[in-house]
Amino acid sequence: MDEAELLAACRGGDQHAFAELVGRHRTNAWHVCLQITGNAHDAEDALQDALTAAWQNLHRFRGDARFNTWLHRIATNAALAVVRRRKITTSLDDADDDSPGIDLTDHGSGFDERVVTADAVHHALGQLPEDFRVAIVLAEFADLPYADIAEHQQVSVATVKTRIHRARKQLAQSLAAAHA
């Protein structure tokens, strides 16, 4: 079935069609949640919240954007909600960060070096303003085009480009300071 047929079946209450449709995009949505929350446990919570919200609100999907973009928006919002709840209940210094969550493909480096680098990247991402962090995560980890990110953040493409540029600059500065 193509995406339109799956959506029609989903709107008719077919849970198997929804599972197939979401299955096509689940990995990318999970990576978005992981990069925003910073750990696998919170990412799983956020993804479950996102999938539940997507099923419950499928009737609101108008088809103006791709389903993938719509699901990423829900996943991003769910991940941000988890982060906000976590900030209320625990300090960032005490946060459980049991998983680096970023696939650093430099396999020539030692394991310890990759873990340190992943921790530094997570810390640097956590220091970014929320709008910058969401933009860079959607661009780099979800591979969304600028137009989709702009739609998600309800800003212009130029604003998205600026946010991503500034996020990269701040990440580079944070990572340089961490390695100094």
TrEMBL record:
Pfam families referenced in this protein's UniProt entry, alphabetically: Sigma70_r2, Sigma70_r4_2
Residue intervals of the RNA polymerase sigma-70 region domain: 21-87
GO biological process: DNA-templated transcription initiation
GO MF term set: DNA binding; sigma factor activity
Signal sequence interval, chain numbering: none
Residue ranges constituting the RNA polymerase sigma factor 70 region 4 type domain according to the UniProt record: 119-171
Transmembrane segments: none
Keywords for this protein: DNA-binding, Sigma factor, Transcription, Transcription regulation
Family as reported in the entry's similarity comment: Belongs to the sigma-70 factor family. ECF subfamily.
NCBIfam families: sigma70-ECF
Name of the featured protein: RNA polymerase sigma-70 factor, ECF subfamily
Originating organism: Rhodococcus tukisamuensis
